């Protein structure tokens, strides 16, 4: 579960910040341009320099500015019930200053192409790094519900497939829909699988990670259910993923 949260923090696009008690909640200023996790388990975020978040963090002292970071995970392929889950990280927000700023910016650059957003706007930078010192983490998604300790977040790494997931799922849906549908034959024994295949009206890839592929099936009566197809071994990169997908599709073809 810690890996799942770390993956959401690093790569999921939809993030909002809530600062209880902060004033001047301007619209459009709550979406960070990038974020990453430090070796200590803190979350570093790039926020607009003139945003309420940046102003509040600039005046914060130690742990007096509480913050809740909410991540909404949305499937990259259109389907019913598209939200795959949510995670919440609660803690204390402060500005990143002095020599610590260079270290945090370097960490961000390892994960994201942040150079463009860090360019100065006149005499001052357009973006400001802030730090969320995480105290509590919870997640509720397709993989389960529970809590994660900040120390676990620091020790784990994001899923290596996450940065490519959206593109790969969209490609599977548009170019390999027949093969994705053919995975129905792997559900249960061959007879049951064939019956499911005949009853299913639509099959959409909903999630892909280093452990396997999840698809959403819609039956003729519009009922939906998810099926997960695990790889024989977790994959480490797109090369191993390609081989695992070929093996999965070959098994579906009998």
Please give the radius of gyration in angstroms.
21 Å
Low-confidence stretches: 25-29
Q: What coarse outline follows from CA principal-axis ratios?
A: elongated
Average the pLDDT over all residues and give the rounded result. 86
Q: Helix coverage percent of residues?
A: 25-40%
- Which structural class should the secondary elements be placed in? alpha+beta
Condensed summary:
The protein contains 9 helices and 12 strands. By secondary structure, the protein is an alpha+beta fold.
Explain how this protein is built.
With 254 residues, this protein is of the alpha+beta class. It has helices at 2-11, 52-58, 98-111, 115-118, 150-155, 162-175, 177-182, 190-199, 238-252, and strands at 14-18, 34-37, 43-48, 66-74, 83-95, 120-121, 124-125, 127-141, 144-148, 200-209, 212-219, 224-230. 34% of the residues lie in helices and 34% in strands. Strand 6 (120-121) and strand 7 form a beta hairpin. The longest helix has 15 residues, at 238-252. The two termini are 34 Å apart.
Jot down its keywords.
alpha+beta, 34% helix, 254 residues
Topology record:
Layout: H1 2-11, E1 14-18, E2 34-37, E3 43-48, H2 52-58, E4 66-74, E5 83-95, H3 98-111, H4 115-118, E6 120-121, E7 124-125, E8 127-141, E9 144-148, H5 150-155, H6 162-175, H7 177-182, H8 190-199, E10 200-209, E11 212-219, E12 224-230, H9 238-252
Antiparallel strand pairs: 1-4, 2-3, 3-8, 4-5, 5-8, 6-7, 8-9, 10-11, 11-12
């Amino acid at each position: 579960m810690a890996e799942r949260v770390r993956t959401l923090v690093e790569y999921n696009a939809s993030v909002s910040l809530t600062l209880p008690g902060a004033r001047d909640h301007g619209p459009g200023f709550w979406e960070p341009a990038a974020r990453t996790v430090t070796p200590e388990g803190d979350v570093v975020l790039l926020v607009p320099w003139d945003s309420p978040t940046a102003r509040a963090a600039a005046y914060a002292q130690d742990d007096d500015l509480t913050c809740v970071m909410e991540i909404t995970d949305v499937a990259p392929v259109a389907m019913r019930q598209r939200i795959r889950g949510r995670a919440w990280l609660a803690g204390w927000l402060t500005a990143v200053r002095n020599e610590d700023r260079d270290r945090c910016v370097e960490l961000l650059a390892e994960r994201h192409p942040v150079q463009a957003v860090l360019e100065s706007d006149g005499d001052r930078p357009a973006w400001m790094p802030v730090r969320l010192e995480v105290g509590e983490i919870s997640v509720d998604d397709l993989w389960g519900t529970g809590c994660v300790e900040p120390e676990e977040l620091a020790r784990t790494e994001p899923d290596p497939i996450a940065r490519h997931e959206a593109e790969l799922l969209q490609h599977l849906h548009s170019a390999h829909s027949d093969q994705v549908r053919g995975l129905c034959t792997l559900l249960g024994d061959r007879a049951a699988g064939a019956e499911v295949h005949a009853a299913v009206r639509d099959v959409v890839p909903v999630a892909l990670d280093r452990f396997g592929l999840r698809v959403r099936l819609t039956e003729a009566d519009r009922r939906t259910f998810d099926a997960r197809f695990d790889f024989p071994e977790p994959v480490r990169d797109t090369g191993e993923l390609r081989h695992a997908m070929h093996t999965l599709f070959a098994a579906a073809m009998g």
